[in-house]
Amino acid sequence: STVDLTAQEAGGDLLSRIRDRGEVNIGIANEAPYGFVDRSGRITGEAPELARIVFQRLGVERMNPRITDFGALIPALQVGVFDVIAAGMFVTPARCKQVLFSDPEYQAPEALMVPKGNPKGLKTLDDIVANKDVRVGLLTGSANISYATALGLMDRAVIFDSVFSGLDGILANRADAFSLTAISLRDALSKRSDAPLELTPAFVPVIGGKRQLGCGAFGFRRDQRTFRDAFTVELNRMRASGELLSTVRPFGFTEAEMTTLTATELCTDTSS
Amino acid sequence: MLGKDLKLMSQSATEAALTSRKDGQFIHFDKVSKRFGDNVVLDDLSFAVGAGERVTLIGPSGSGKTTILRMLMTLMEPDTGTVRVGDDYLFHEERGGKLVPASEAHVRKVRQRITMVFQSFNLFPNMRVLRNVTEAPVHVLGLSKEEAEERALGLLEMVGLDHKIDSYPSQLSGGQQQRVAIARALAMRPDVLLLDEVTSALDPELAAGVLDVLRDVAKTTDVTMLCVTHAMKFARDISHRVLMFCEGKIIEAAPPEQMFDSPDHERTRSFLQSVLNES
Amino acid sequence: MLGKDLKLMSQSATEAALTSRKDGQFIHFDKVSKRFGDNVVLDDLSFAVGAGERVTLIGPSGSGKTTILRMLMTLMEPDTGTVRVGDDYLFHEERGGKLVPASEAHVRKVRQRITMVFQSFNLFPNMRVLRNVTEAPVHVLGLSKEEAEERALGLLEMVGLDHKIDSYPSQLSGGQQQRVAIARALAMRPDVLLLDEVTSALDPELAAGVLDVLRDVAKTTDVTMLCVTHAMKFARDISHRVLMFCEGKIIEAAPPEQMFDSPDHERTRSFLQSVLNES
Amino acid sequence: MTWDWGYAWETLPQLLDGLGVTVLATLAGTAIALVLGLVFTVMRRSSARWISIPTEIFVEFIRSTPLLVQLFVLFFVLPEAGIQLSAFMTGVIGLGLHYATYTSEVYRSGIEGVPAGQWEAAKALNLPTRRVWTSVILPQAVPPSIPALGNYAIAMFKETPQLTVITVMELLSVARQLGAENYRYLEPVTIIGVLFLLLSLPTAWLVRRMERRLVPAPRPV
Amino acid sequence: MSPQLFAYLLEGLLTTLQLTVGAAVLGLVFSFAAGIATCSPNIVVRGVGRCYIELFRGISALVLLFWFVFALPYAGWQLEPMWAGILALALNIGAYGAEVVRGGIVAVPVAQIEAAVALNFTRSQRMRLVVLPQAIARMLPPFGNLLIELLKGTSVAYIVLIPDLTFAGQIVRNATGDSASVFTALLILYAVLAVIFTTIVRLVERRVAKSLGRQPTPGFFARIKGVKA
Ligand SMILES: Nc1ncnc2c1ncn2[C@@H]1O[C@H](COP(=O)(O)OP(=O)(O)OP(=O)(O)O)[C@@H](O)[C@H]1O
Ligand SMILES: Nc1ncnc2c1ncn2[C@@H]1O[C@H](COP(=O)(O)OP(=O)(O)OP(=O)(O)O)[C@@H](O)[C@H]1O
Ligand SMILES: [Mg+2]
Ligand SMILES: [Mg+2]
């Protein structure tokens, strides 16, 4: 059961091996609506659904999803536990040093989940910075952690290991606000509509004068450029034909979430 | 040396004998049975012991001798039958003319008159010799520490161990430990003293010392003694009466001279022969 | 019944006696000393035992009797001095004319002639009676299972336990366990049999049975026996010689009649008196 | 990927902070486990069956379910019942409660290790029940239990990483966070392993020394 | 709950069982190897045994898991998470088991070894024929406890991608949003598994105790029935 990693690092073409195998391993973080297990027990989400179509077009019929902690996605990809991250992972320059990204399939503004009535009157991350009493909930390994670090919020951060832990955490008064993408939070809340919680209107965080627009994409190992490129080509075809939007629409995505930014721009553009 | 301490003992034994109900006896076993699984250990046994009487129990292994003593010490309950000490039932109380199982308080009250010395001494290893002897008088009889120590010193002197009061039991030889155990038991000024093969874990030479102490106790006090032993010479010296047990029954009871010199029963004869034979 | 099994024993004992170096003796303790901390347990002790001789060791507690037996069994090493069994040193080997500490193989070879029965029987609780007796003959002497079982059955019959071969030790009485232990030891056909107070953990009646078995062994074989016991009558019956130990020295050695009836030494007299007194 | 000393050095201060939390949680948890365990033991031996049986079931249940899941429950469900404790307190209580079921077993076997003769002698002297416990049984039962109790303290130390699921930033959470931020797990995780060893080895050594003092030296086989 | 989600739980349950049993078997091998090694007269063998015990008792299974899954691949070989899980748990539990083995051996009365010397058994025969068979009876109850430890210990595996019962619970929790009932179900499932394991161990204990002609110590059920001396 040992796998020789060095063979792959020597530049072997993973895509052709996947084609031979007829099966691709994708990593998801069990985070709705990106990649998750739904009520009926099926693995779905915008990223796995897109990946399914793209891989079919690349000649790979079967898809084998492996669920892991969000924070462990990149290390697990690097050691070969799976071939692609299909978790709607945000493209950040730091992450670009570790993995190759496809062009993003969506952009997502942020929101805060707060107790019903928003007793502390929080609207954006800046409000949290201003009010020193607020404890902010973050998802382990998410991009929000680097925002919070940059904003000096870490000493009041409560780090949850899943979206639902965050939701339960607000209910249990473990934190005053849970910061994540609006789309994740909306989805989580929809499953617990009875919970006395609400979402703030979506916002785009600004750090060091730069807008932090979260764009989710698929991740590949650094030595798999050909693979990544082949994947990106198919993805962009879907984007052009509108098929991308129609595929992700059931998961709560709209035109507002569509983007034409590229991985290259996102990897070099911002810095935090 | 002895008189001083032991005169004080058992003021209540005679008293108890007076208050005893009908037959002038102090301890009554009445139709007592006890079994473990299929093993009938005591078989509908009845006997009585007078106040101040010294009785030796003999008999082959497993015949129920220890069981009798343990039952009197309430370490074991009878299946059926009653045990009476003085006026009180040991495992029962009379309530509205009926016998009901005794409360803990009742058992503790009756048990107060009785104490036991064990084959394996059972000194408290975490206490020094002196505290082994004073612990119960202080916490059970409510003596002050000074009173208890005075009493303990007297008794330890009697058993020849007043120079060891600051030792731990583990620093004493078996014979010394057993003598402390005797002092500890006597410190409670019991009416009844139970002795279960108190020398059989000891070397013959050490055993001799312990038996000497017990001879003294027997001769200078009027404590009621029930004693299981294989030391036949000792039994002859001190006991008023010898009971021969066999399979949970008393098959013969007689004064020691008669029992040892001309036993009635064949089983007694063979038992005594094998015990006296090897030495 | 006895003859059959025991005739076979110790073919080599006489042989050993013949090969013994100078004085016709079989076991030699030569200037053996042993101490634990400050406690001098054996004090420059020398003595010898002839092949086929039966020797009883007596003496007060702590005088070093057990130590002698345990040393012969190699459960303990001497601090100084040598022990010889037949031609071989027990803890040393001769190499180039010099005595060097013995190798494990050498010790095993010499030890093969000796075995021991313990006060607390020490049967193997994980084996049934039969296997307790056959295990060593099979694994040490290299007998086949059938041979070993035949031998074991003969010995178990001799000790009167052939009906218990399928019991576990825990299902036997102490006396029965000790008789199995004797059978187990004899199954090794030792030249030397060591017995350390083999009846003192037993009730007098059970002890009698064990001593009877040992009387048989003594009378029907020529095994060399070293025996620590307080059963003076037994000692008188079987031993050729009695050694009185005191503080790690032999203070008196004599045939049993002389030792028990007219001991020379004051210490012996007082010891014997206390042992014989209580029974 | 090779070992990066610079990165290792950089992460060390944060890891040491995490270690502080871990050690504090262990100490507090041990204190709770020691006391609560004794309480459980005494309750389980109670002659009142309405005390002893529920206690026995409770202890057995806690003992046979994972600490991890218990932490989840304490952290997310207790507040719904109106009990609001900090994450750290929740973790300490979870650890203490869980390990109390172990220490309770240790105390129990310590008590059972006291020879029956001691109970009988105490009864023969008619000592009152409380006195039997305080002067005869516990003084004999507790000292031999100390090494086993010490071992559980070490075990607890190594369980603290589970507090990560209830947002306590102990050693492993810090390492995971660092790993997720920098995508390098090798250094922080290795440092954790070494830190664990540095703390647990001397403790284990101490426990064994105690054990040796309490149990006289064994012999060659 | 949908059949699929139920299937996750079932699969998680099986994974947990697989981890537990696999690590128990492998751990048993480590336990005996190291435990017997610590009783060896040879100082090197003893040293190796001790080092193993101290090292792997000292490092938590979780850290080992992380190492095996995320660090070891850089040293050139990669374990399936499942195998990494079994190995890490086994190394850890084996170190504890080794102490149990040692304790069991040391607890065999010296007199038994002396009796074996008196019968002139060799050192290894003494160990094999006399000491171990008795020691194993003493080891079983603590081994039973370790097995439960191990069962519970497997719940950390989810952190490194092994879809065990706790992991399955997390999935169901995320899918349904119902934290309280998922946690309750998990607690009950683990408790049921523990009871099953305990029962099996007690059956073995009873057998072994019987083969020594001993009374086994009373178990949980006997205890709550309140048999007291
Ligand atoms: N707790 C117990 N459980 C089962 N059987 C018991 C128990 N206590 C005693 N027995 C049995 O009761 C019987 C009588 O035991 P007891 O100790 O009274 O005999 P004894 O006359 O004192 O014998 P010994 O001389 O050997 O001390 C024995 O067969 C013994 O096995
Ligand atoms: N392993 C040991 N460590 C320390 N002292 C020991 C050891 N073995 C024996 N002794 C001491 O050696 C002395 C002699 O012991 P030994 O057992 O030979 O006496 P014994 O004559 O057999 O006495 P007993 O009749 O009591 O059996 C005793 O004082 C004992 O305390
Ligand atoms: Mg008895
Ligand atoms: Mg001796």
Automatic annotation (TrEMBL), chains B, C:
Which keywords does this Swiss-Prot/TrEMBL entry list?
Answer: Amino-acid transport, ATP-binding, Cell membrane, Membrane, Nucleotide-binding, Transport
Q: Which domain of life is it from?
A: Bacteria
Annotated compartments? Cell membrane
- Give the protein family: Belongs to the ABC transporter superfamily.
Annotated membrane topology: Peripheral membrane protein
Keyword Membrane part of the UniProt annotation = yes
Q: Report the residue ranges that make up the ABC transporter domain in this protein.
A: 27-272
**What's the protein called, per UniProt?**
Ectoine/hydroxyectoine ABC transporter ATP-binding protein EhuA
Automatic annotation (TrEMBL), chain D:
What keywords are annotated for this sequence in UniProt? Amino-acid transport, Cell membrane, Membrane, Transmembrane, Transmembrane helix, Transport
- Record's SUPFAM superfamilies? MetI-like (SSF161098)
The family database entries (CDD domains) matched by this protein are listed as:
TM_PBP2 (cd06261)
Q: Which Pfam families match?
A: BPD_transp_1
Entry's transmembrane regions: 20-43, 71-100, 189-207
**UniProt cross-references to InterPro entries, sorted A to Z:** AA_ABC_transptr_permease_3TM (IPR010065), ArtM/GltK/GlnP/TcyL/YhdX-like (IPR043429), Ectoine_EhuD (IPR014341), MetI-like (IPR000515), MetI-like_sf (IPR035906)
**Where is this protein primarily located?**
membrane
Entry keyword Transferase:
no
Compartmental location? Cell membrane
User: What's its membrane topology?
Assistant: Multi-pass membrane protein
What family is it from?
Answer: Belongs to the binding-protein-dependent transport system permease family.
The protein, known as: Ectoine/hydroxyectoine ABC transporter permease subunit EhuD
From which source organism is this entry?
Allokutzneria multivorans
The opening ranks of the lineage are: Bacteria, Bacillati, Actinomycetota, Actinomycetes, Pseudonocardiales
TrEMBL record, chain E:
Under Gene3D superfamilies, the record lists: MetI-like (1.10.3720.10)
Q: Where does the chain cross the membrane?
A: 12-35, 55-75, 104-122, 143-162, 182-204
Provide the gene name from the record.
ehuC
Q: What protein name is recorded for this chain?
A: Ectoine/hydroxyectoine ABC transporter permease subunit EhuC
What the entry lists under PROSITE patterns is as follows: ABC_TM1
Question: How does the record say this protein sits in the membrane?
Answer: Multi-pass membrane protein
Q: Which family does it belong to?
A: Belongs to the binding-protein-dependent transport system permease family.
Q: Where is it localised?
A: Cell membrane
Q: Which UniProt keywords apply?
A: Amino-acid transport, Cell membrane, Membrane, Transmembrane, Transmembrane helix, Transport
The UniProt entry, under CDD domains, shows: TM_PBP2
Record NCBIfam families: ectoine_ehuC, HEQRo_perm_3TM
For this protein, the record's InterPro entries field holds: AA_ABC_transptr_permease_3TM, ArtM/GltK/GlnP/TcyL/YhdX-like, Ectoine_EhuC, MetI-like, MetI-like_sf
Top-level taxon: Bacteria
